[in-house]
From TrEMBL:
The modification Pyruvic acid (Ser) is found at residue 185. This is Phosphatidylserine decarboxylase proenzyme. It comes from Neolewinella litorea. HAMAP family: PS_decarb_PSD_A. Belongs to the phosphatidylserine decarboxylase family. PSD-A subfamily. Keywords: Cell membrane, Decarboxylase, Lipid biosynthesis, Lipid metabolism, Lyase, Membrane, Phospholipid biosynthesis, Phospholipid metabolism, Pyruvate, Transmembrane, Transmembrane helix, Zymogen. Heterodimer of a large membrane-associated beta subunit and a small pyruvoyl-containing alpha subunit. It is a peripheral membrane protein. The chain crosses the membrane at residues 10-27, 33-51. GO terms for molecular function: phosphatidylserine decarboxylase activity. The gene is psd.
Amino acid sequence: MRIHPEGRRMLALLFIGLAIICALVYWKAPAQLPVVAIASGIFFVTILQFFRNPTRMVPEEADHLVYAPADGKVVVIEEAYEPEYFKANRLQVSIFMSPVNVHVNRNPVSGLVKYNKYHPGKYLVAWHPKSSTENERTTVVIDTGETEILLRQIAGALAKRIKNYLEVGQQVVQGEDFGFIKFGSRVDLFLPLGTQLRVDIGQKVKGNKTVIAELE
């Protein structure tokens, strides 16, 4: 299992901390060591799974396909006003990333990064209607050459650190990593009106594997 670079330092410090705790327990109360060691191991594995980064290639690189940018469950499909960049209605698809999902974010399309902006904000639960505009978030727009796709990484009640690796003017490739949200949250996609969707509300999706939509 590959570990994402975002988690390596935290996991190393956590391992050292848990090892020190076990050593102290062994010194002060050796009879309690098995219980503490098992609890420490379970806790370490729980945190470890947050940072797993499975290798995934898109089944088919295609300009008209929009792949899921994250693992999770589709919680919103609706026509919505996008106030930051388009300032017009778009088709919104939101994917909620639970703590058990892979937290890597991947480019749903290939193209040129036209816009990238980080916004500090609140930490409402990710499914709150106002989380898209009031929570800590990063907004990215990718120009495919035919249309523009907006991606928004949104922090939630637990996820309080968004990482985004893209820069304006950068050419990105469909399927490559573009960011990471520690401990899960939500990713919004804003697509052109009339886009043909390939997912339904409540459907579980996988980054680089599930086709979200087909562009006209």
